Amino acid sequence: MPDKLSKELKQFLYTFEKKINIKKGTYLFHEGETANEIYLILSGKVQMSKITPDGQELTMRLCSEDDIVGELTLFTDGALYLLNAKVMEDGTAIVIPKDELEIGVANDSKIAVELMKWMSIHFRKTQTKFRDLVLKGKKGGLYSTLIRMTNSYGVMKPNGILIDTPLTNQDLANYCGTSREVVNRMLSELKKNEILSVEKGKITIHDLNFLKLEIDCENCPVELCSID
Protein backbone atom coordinates (compact mmCIF):
# COMPACT_ATOMS: atom_id res chain seq x y z
CA MET A 1 0.00 0.00 0.00
CA PRO A 2 1.31 3.49 -0.88
CA ASP A 3 0.44 4.89 2.55
CA LYS A 4 2.60 2.36 4.43
CA LEU A 5 5.99 3.30 5.80
CA SER A 6 8.85 3.66 3.36
CA LYS A 7 11.80 1.32 3.79
CA GLU A 8 14.01 4.17 5.05
CA LEU A 9 11.50 5.44 7.60
CA LYS A 10 10.72 1.93 8.82
CA GLN A 11 14.42 1.15 9.34
CA PHE A 12 14.85 4.38 11.28
CA LEU A 13 11.88 3.68 13.58
CA TYR A 14 13.12 0.15 14.22
CA THR A 15 16.29 1.59 15.76
CA PHE A 16 14.19 2.36 18.84
CA GLU A 17 14.39 -0.89 20.75
CA LYS A 18 11.80 -0.64 23.54
CA LYS A 19 8.92 -3.00 22.78
CA ILE A 20 5.72 -3.61 24.73
CA ASN A 21 2.91 -6.11 24.53
CA ILE A 22 -0.45 -4.47 23.89
CA LYS A 23 -3.63 -6.11 25.23
CA LYS A 24 -7.14 -5.90 23.85
CA GLY A 25 -9.31 -3.48 25.81
CA THR A 26 -6.42 -1.40 27.17
CA TYR A 27 -5.33 2.05 25.98
CA LEU A 28 -1.95 3.27 24.76
CA PHE A 29 -3.09 6.74 25.75
CA HIS A 30 -6.19 8.88 26.30
CA GLU A 31 -7.21 12.16 24.72
CA GLY A 32 -5.87 15.08 26.76
CA GLU A 33 -2.94 13.25 28.38
CA THR A 34 0.57 14.66 28.07
CA ALA A 35 2.18 13.28 24.93
CA ASN A 36 5.66 11.95 25.67
CA GLU A 37 5.72 8.90 23.39
CA ILE A 38 4.91 7.81 19.85
CA TYR A 39 4.10 4.19 19.02
CA LEU A 40 4.87 1.99 16.03
CA ILE A 41 2.44 -0.90 15.81
CA LEU A 42 4.19 -4.19 15.01
CA SER A 43 1.14 -6.43 15.33
CA GLY A 44 -2.42 -6.21 16.57
CA LYS A 45 -4.94 -3.41 15.98
CA VAL A 46 -5.38 -0.02 17.65
CA GLN A 47 -8.47 2.16 17.22
CA MET A 48 -7.99 5.93 17.15
CA SER A 49 -11.07 7.83 18.25
CA LYS A 50 -12.29 11.13 19.65
CA ILE A 51 -15.15 11.90 22.01
CA THR A 52 -17.38 14.68 20.65
CA PRO A 53 -18.87 17.38 22.93
CA ASP A 54 -22.18 15.47 23.07
CA GLY A 55 -20.43 12.31 24.25
CA GLN A 56 -20.49 10.47 20.92
CA GLU A 57 -17.41 8.44 20.00
CA LEU A 58 -16.04 9.17 16.52
CA THR A 59 -13.60 6.56 15.23
CA MET A 60 -10.92 8.11 13.03
CA ARG A 61 -8.59 5.22 12.13
CA LEU A 62 -8.00 1.55 12.73
CA CYS A 63 -4.23 1.10 12.93
CA SER A 64 -2.34 -2.12 12.34
CA GLU A 65 1.13 -3.35 11.39
CA ASP A 66 3.63 -0.56 10.61
CA ASP A 67 1.24 2.26 11.49
CA ILE A 68 2.49 5.14 13.63
CA VAL A 69 0.25 6.20 16.52
CA GLY A 70 0.47 9.56 18.28
CA GLU A 71 2.23 11.35 15.42
CA LEU A 72 -0.06 14.39 15.62
CA THR A 73 1.84 15.61 18.67
CA LEU A 74 5.24 15.85 16.98
CA PHE A 75 7.12 19.18 17.07
CA THR A 76 4.60 20.71 19.46
CA ASP A 77 5.72 22.04 22.84
CA GLY A 78 3.64 20.83 25.76
CA ALA A 79 1.71 18.55 23.40
CA LEU A 80 -1.35 16.62 24.53
CA TYR A 81 -2.72 13.57 22.78
CA LEU A 82 -5.61 14.59 20.53
CA LEU A 83 -7.21 11.14 20.29
CA ASN A 84 -7.79 7.98 22.30
CA ALA A 85 -5.76 4.92 21.30
CA LYS A 86 -7.66 1.76 22.27
CA VAL A 87 -6.17 -1.67 21.63
CA MET A 88 -8.69 -3.77 19.67
CA GLU A 89 -6.50 -6.84 19.11
CA ASP A 90 -3.51 -8.18 21.08
CA GLY A 91 -0.11 -7.43 19.61
CA THR A 92 3.18 -5.61 20.13
CA ALA A 93 4.42 -2.07 19.60
CA ILE A 94 7.66 -0.10 19.68
CA VAL A 95 7.65 2.79 22.16
CA ILE A 96 9.45 5.85 20.77
CA PRO A 97 10.22 8.83 23.03
CA LYS A 98 8.76 11.90 21.34
CA ASP A 99 11.79 14.12 21.99
CA GLU A 100 14.25 11.51 20.66
CA LEU A 101 12.19 11.04 17.50
CA GLU A 102 12.08 14.79 16.91
CA ILE A 103 15.86 15.05 17.26
CA GLY A 104 16.41 12.13 14.90
CA VAL A 105 14.08 13.58 12.26
CA ALA A 106 15.61 17.05 12.56
CA ASN A 107 19.10 15.63 11.96
CA ASP A 108 18.20 13.53 8.92
CA SER A 109 16.56 15.39 6.04
CA LYS A 110 15.72 12.20 4.13
CA ILE A 111 13.87 10.73 7.10
CA ALA A 112 12.13 14.07 7.62
CA VAL A 113 10.84 14.05 4.04
CA GLU A 114 9.66 10.43 4.32
CA LEU A 115 7.80 11.21 7.55
CA MET A 116 6.20 14.29 5.98
CA LYS A 117 5.01 12.21 3.03
CA TRP A 118 3.46 9.62 5.32
CA MET A 119 1.75 12.24 7.49
CA SER A 120 0.50 14.15 4.45
CA ILE A 121 -1.36 11.11 3.17
CA HIS A 122 -3.02 10.57 6.55
CA PHE A 123 -4.06 14.22 6.78
CA ARG A 124 -5.65 13.94 3.34
CA LYS A 125 -7.45 10.75 4.37
CA THR A 126 -8.86 12.54 7.41
CA GLN A 127 -10.02 15.44 5.24
CA THR A 128 -11.91 13.11 2.89
CA LYS A 129 -13.65 11.43 5.84
CA PHE A 130 -14.81 14.77 7.24
CA ARG A 131 -15.90 15.83 3.74
CA ASP A 132 -18.18 12.83 3.48
CA LEU A 133 -19.61 13.37 6.96
CA VAL A 134 -20.22 17.09 6.49
CA LEU A 135 -21.45 17.14 2.90
CA LYS A 136 -23.35 13.83 2.77
CA GLY A 137 -24.63 13.49 6.33
CA LYS A 138 -25.31 10.21 8.11
CA LYS A 139 -25.87 8.25 4.92
CA GLY A 140 -22.63 9.56 3.46
CA GLY A 141 -20.84 8.63 6.65
CA LEU A 142 -22.07 5.03 6.57
CA TYR A 143 -21.75 4.46 2.83
CA SER A 144 -18.25 5.93 2.64
CA THR A 145 -17.22 3.85 5.68
CA LEU A 146 -18.41 0.69 3.94
CA ILE A 147 -16.54 1.67 0.78
CA ARG A 148 -13.36 2.29 2.78
CA MET A 149 -13.79 -1.03 4.57
CA THR A 150 -13.86 -2.85 1.23
CA ASN A 151 -10.57 -1.20 0.29
CA SER A 152 -8.92 -2.10 3.61
CA TYR A 153 -10.41 -5.54 4.32
CA GLY A 154 -12.27 -6.52 1.16
CA VAL A 155 -12.03 -10.06 -0.23
CA MET A 156 -13.62 -10.80 -3.59
CA LYS A 157 -16.30 -13.50 -3.44
CA PRO A 158 -18.67 -14.85 -6.11
CA ASN A 159 -21.54 -12.80 -4.65
CA GLY A 160 -19.66 -9.58 -3.89
CA ILE A 161 -16.95 -8.17 -1.64
CA LEU A 162 -16.62 -9.63 1.84
CA ILE A 163 -15.40 -7.17 4.47
CA ASP A 164 -13.21 -9.68 6.27
CA THR A 165 -13.27 -8.18 9.75
CA PRO A 166 -16.09 -8.41 12.31
CA LEU A 167 -18.13 -5.21 12.63
CA THR A 168 -20.97 -4.45 15.01
CA ASN A 169 -23.55 -1.79 14.25
CA GLN A 170 -22.04 0.22 17.11
CA ASP A 171 -18.61 0.00 15.45
CA LEU A 172 -20.09 1.42 12.25
CA ALA A 173 -21.94 4.10 14.19
CA ASN A 174 -18.66 5.21 15.76
CA TYR A 175 -17.04 5.55 12.34
CA CYS A 176 -19.99 7.67 11.20
CA GLY A 177 -20.33 9.80 14.32
CA THR A 178 -23.97 8.79 14.74
CA SER A 179 -26.12 6.45 16.85
CA ARG A 180 -26.47 2.70 16.56
CA GLU A 181 -30.21 3.10 15.96
CA VAL A 182 -29.60 5.25 12.88
CA VAL A 183 -27.12 2.72 11.50
CA ASN A 184 -29.58 -0.11 12.21
CA ARG A 185 -32.23 1.57 10.05
CA MET A 186 -29.85 2.29 7.17
CA LEU A 187 -28.40 -1.22 7.18
CA SER A 188 -31.90 -2.73 7.24
CA GLU A 189 -32.80 -0.74 4.15
CA LEU A 190 -29.61 -1.81 2.37
CA LYS A 191 -30.25 -5.46 3.25
CA LYS A 192 -33.86 -5.18 2.08
CA ASN A 193 -32.66 -3.89 -1.28
CA GLU A 194 -29.97 -6.61 -1.46
CA ILE A 195 -27.14 -4.07 -1.53
CA LEU A 196 -25.41 -5.98 1.25
CA SER A 197 -25.86 -8.92 3.58
CA VAL A 198 -24.51 -9.81 7.02
CA GLU A 199 -23.43 -13.26 8.19
CA LYS A 200 -21.66 -14.05 11.45
CA GLY A 201 -20.89 -10.38 12.03
CA LYS A 202 -19.23 -9.88 8.64
CA ILE A 203 -20.67 -7.74 5.86
CA THR A 204 -20.68 -8.64 2.19
CA ILE A 205 -21.24 -5.79 -0.26
CA HIS A 206 -23.21 -7.03 -3.28
CA ASP A 207 -23.54 -3.70 -5.08
CA LEU A 208 -20.59 -1.42 -4.37
CA ASN A 209 -21.47 0.81 -7.30
CA PHE A 210 -24.81 1.66 -5.66
CA LEU A 211 -23.02 2.98 -2.57
CA LYS A 212 -20.64 5.03 -4.71
CA LEU A 213 -23.40 6.56 -6.81
CA GLU A 214 -25.47 7.47 -3.75
CA ILE A 215 -22.68 9.63 -2.32
CA ASP A 216 -21.31 10.93 -5.63
CA CYS A 217 -18.06 9.04 -4.99
CA GLU A 218 -15.05 10.79 -6.52
CA ASN A 219 -13.13 7.50 -6.85
CA CYS A 220 -10.22 8.73 -4.77
CA PRO A 221 -7.03 6.63 -4.85
CA VAL A 222 -7.17 3.63 -2.50
CA GLU A 223 -4.37 5.19 -0.43
CA LEU A 224 -6.88 7.90 0.57
CA CYS A 225 -10.04 5.77 0.60
CA SER A 226 -9.26 3.25 3.32
CA ILE A 227 -10.16 2.88 6.97
CA ASP A 228 -6.60 2.62 8.37
TrEMBL record:
InterPro entries: cNMP-bd_dom, cNMP-bd_dom_sf, Env_Response_Regulators, HTH_CRP, RmlC-like_jellyroll, WH-like_DNA-bd_sf, WH_DNA-bd_sf. Residues 1-77 form the Cyclic nucleotide-binding domain. SMART domains: cNMP, HTH_CRP. One of its GO terms (molecular function) is DNA-binding transcription factor activity. Residues 136-209 form the HTH crp-type domain. Gene3D superfamilies: Jelly Rolls (2.60.120.10), Winged helix-like DNA-binding domain superfamily/Winged helix DNA-binding domain (1.10.10.10). CDD domains: CAP_ED, HTH_CRP. One of its GO terms (cellular component) is cytosol. Keywords: Activator, DNA-binding, Transcription, Transcription regulation. SUPFAM superfamilies: cAMP-binding domain-like (SSF51206), Winged helix' DNA-binding domain (SSF46785). Coiled coil: none annotated. PANTHER family: CRP FAMILY TRANSCRIPTIONAL REGULATORY PROTEIN, HTH-TYPE TRANSCRIPTIONAL REGULATOR ARCR. This is Crp/Fnr family transcriptional regulator. The lineage of its organism: Bacteria, Bacillati, Bacillota, Bacilli, Bacillales.
